[in-house]
Amino acid sequence: MLGLARRALLRLGASSLPPQQARALRLLLRPASTSSKKAHSFTVSYLVGSCGLSPESALAAAKAVQFAAPSRPDSVLEVFRNRGLSPTQVSSVVRRYPRMLISRPDNLSAKLEFLCSRGISGRDLVRLVVAVPGVLTRSLGCHLMPTFEYLSGLLQSEAKAVRSIKRSPRILYHDPKVLLVPSIGILRDCGVPEAKIRWSVLSLPGAFSLRSNVRFEDAVSRVKAMGFDPLRTNFLLALQVVRGMNESTWRRKVDAFGNWGWSEEDVVLAFKRNPGCMTMSESKIAAVMDVFVNEMGLDPLYMARRPTMMMLSLQKRIVPRCWVFRVLLSKGLIRTTRSLNGFLGVLRSCSWRRL
Predict the structure, then answer these.
(1) Beta strands of 171-214 (E only): which ranges?
(2) What are phi and psi of 139, to 5 degrees?
(3) Domain boundaries, the chain
(4) Opening angle at CA 164, ends 176 and 204, nearest 5
(5) Does the pTM of the predicted model rise above 0.90?
(6) What are the tens digits of pLDDT across the range 187-198?
């Protein structure tokens, strides 16, 4: 049946298309050659046997890459193993970037050696390759080197550039002229000091390497509209949260707080006091509010003014300390639940990124 359909399409194409397009149609519909079938079969078998892919993943990967001999992919796998990648990690890299298997091993080694020479080695190098294997598809001379040099110049230190890359390897993958440079220009235009811009690239590089639905300029406008001061660090923390969240996710979290009587103004108040409170899942919001409101008897709005309390570990800190607090309260050793904030060990300087 497939052969009859192919012949019919060829006859129609040859009679109705210009010669050049008719030839292209014949090539497109031509039955796969025996050598092509063998290469496809070998590739799938190799991806399963040597790379640890499932048959389904191997079939999908074979659409992107094919080879008829194991010499090149064997050499690529050896490069990865020599750098400390486990079989599971190699499988993850190959599944996401199957064409990596036909890379020139010497080029691949040169890129890895460059990263090592700049201070990204051992476990850090493995984490980078597994997190963003696409970094190794970038040109060494035309992209990796100049991007690293740009980050080093911006942060005034190679060591700081390495720290930024370790926090968000995608900042090394993307062309700085496409995402980073324009974003920095927007921050300068809205009055963020140079020192804080450098701090944000060092400490919050993920905010500059997201291709999210929320454009950087839109996110800056939203954060300013909420009343954040560009001169303060919280402006940049809030920007990172907004950049990483689409409007529907934001609305779901606002609704989750709304279930406990918070208005949108209360949500913004909590967000301004600790931007990280909006990174909690809806289930975490419901669980901590249940403990503080239903079990501890706190006013829900008390939490809006102390959002860091909600961000503590539910099982490791909130539940056990609240249990001890209730015992002390029942014995008259503590007079009011309003001292719970201090009892939980919440500090004003507590960073949401470490909770």
Answers:
(1) none
(2) -65, 135
(3) 1-31, 247-354
(4) 90
(5) no
(6) 999 999 999 999
